[in-house]
Design goal:
Strand 9 (about 270) and strand 10 (about 270-275) form a beta hairpin. It is built from 13 helices and 10 strands. Helix 4 (about 65-75) crosses helix 8. It has helices at about 5-25, 30-35, 40-50, 65-75, 80-90, 95-100, 105-115, 230-265, 280-305, 310-335, 340, 345-355, 365-375; strands at about 120-125, 140-145, 145-155, 165-170, 180-185, 195, 210-220, 225, 270, 270-275.
Length: about 375
């Protein structure tokens, strides 16, 4: 078994770490304050070929497979969960269906500009009354001549306020449930398409918002793939997205752990660094161990993905394990910091309010449990 990254992957890891230190770290506080993912990061990453590392080079991607995606998201999330969420949506969930099932025209109009960072895209699935039960989507698309007419609302949508277009999950026939779902590209300037900002406790720099469609007329050529196949496209994209999400969780766990480790070494009580107290040292040792375990499961799953293996079980396992770890790492880091960690300006406070969302996004913890049980034949 070979646990080494390839030379191109190692080079990318070093390059993205340098990029993050130079281009991302200095603007995190401003992005969090403005509650918006900086648009310029998309174009800077795209120009370097870093924005969609998993996608083929012919579509302006990095050609590094899912492992490349994981490298990007772990490093980005260790610094800022919100910014990573925006970047990860662009490089995965929001563009997956176009890459996999889009026609040549759609790839030229939407995928390539997105991979180059020239246009920002969002993925619209969640609704006020629909989350895990994707088959119950209420946003409808009625065919009218050469157009689809969309009506409905999507919420908690990453990149909503800065997007140039959205890949939207809709129902063309609600009586057919999952067999009546489609995925359609809607451009921002389409009449009847409205975007509203939504404020969140965490992931503040993810540009989250609400998408509202009121008799929104979209050309039929913006349908991705086939009508009635959208459920399949979404499930596949979520499987891929769970791996990417897990990379973000590992990164956020690592970031919280590194803050706690550094603080424990410099904070003194009773004449010595608090890292010398066993109660603190054991917390750090456990976190270090679990982060290594989570990363091993993550990269094994990404490796399986790149080999084209079936991985419904592994994708849910890595999402479950890394999500719970991210939350625990933030909690332990907060305890180690004490009052200093509870201050709004502290990094630990940001990890704490960001990481708690891990249970809910890309499929809840409970849904991952159900998926794993199903794969085990339970």
């Amino acid at each position: 078994m070979d646990f080494e990254l390839t030379e191109p992957q190692k080079m990318f890891q070093a390059a993205i770490r340098g990029f993050i230190q130079k281009e991302v770290v200095p603007i995190v506080d401003e992005a969090e304050e403005n509650e918006e993912c900086p648009r310029e990061l998309f174009s800077k990453l795209g120009t370097l070929g870093y924005l969609c590392p998993a996608y083929p080079v012919e579509y302006e991607g990095g050609g590094l497979g899912k492992i490349g995606d994981c490298i990007l998201c772990e490093e980005m999330a260790s610094v800022c969960a919100g910014i990573n969420s925006g970047i990860a949506s662009q490089s995965g969930l929001a563009t997956y269906a176009i890459l996999t099932y889009g026609n040549d025209d759609q790839k030229q109009r939407f995928l390539i500009p997105a991979a180059k960072g020239e246009r920002i895209v969002t993925f619209a699935l969640t609704e006020p009354n629909v989350g895990s039960d994707v088959a119950s989507i209420e946003t409808t698309a009625r065919k009218d001549g050469n157009y689809y007419v969309l009506n409905g609302t999507k919420c908690y949508i990453t990149n909503a306020t800065i997007c140039d277009f959205a890949t939207v999950a809709v129902s063309t026939d609600r009586s057919q449930r999952h067999q009546g779902i489609a995925v359609i590209v809607v451009e921002r300037d389409t009449p009847g398409f409205q975007i509203n900002r939504m404020k969140a406790s965490g992931f503040r720099s993810a540009s989250g918002g609400e998408l509202v469609f009121e008799d929104c007329r979209v050309p039929i050529e913006n349908l991705i793939g086939e009508e009635g196949m959208g459920f399949k496209y979404i499930m596949q994209s979520l499987n891929s997205g769970r791996i990417t999400h897990s990379a973000g969780s590992v990164g956020r766990a690592r970031g919280a752990y590194e803050e706690a480790l550094a603080y424990a070494k410099q904070r003194t009580q009773f004449g010595r660094p608090i890292s010398k107290f066993q109660s603190i040292a054991f917390k750090l040792a456990r976190l270090a161990t679990d982060i290594e375990a989570a990363r091993a499961l993550l990269y094994k799953t990404a490796w399986l993905y790149d080999r084209g293996e079936r991985l419904a079980k592994e994708a849910s396992m890595t999402k479950l394990f890394s999500s719970e770890l991210a939350i625990r790492a933030a909690e332990e880091s907060m305890r180690i910091h004490g009052g200093a960690g509870y201050m709004a300006e502290s990094k630990v406070h940001r990890y704490f309010r960001d990481n708690i969302l891990s249970h809910a996004t890309e499929g809840t913890t409970e849904m991952q449990m159900l998926n794993i049980c199903r794969e085990l034949g339970l």
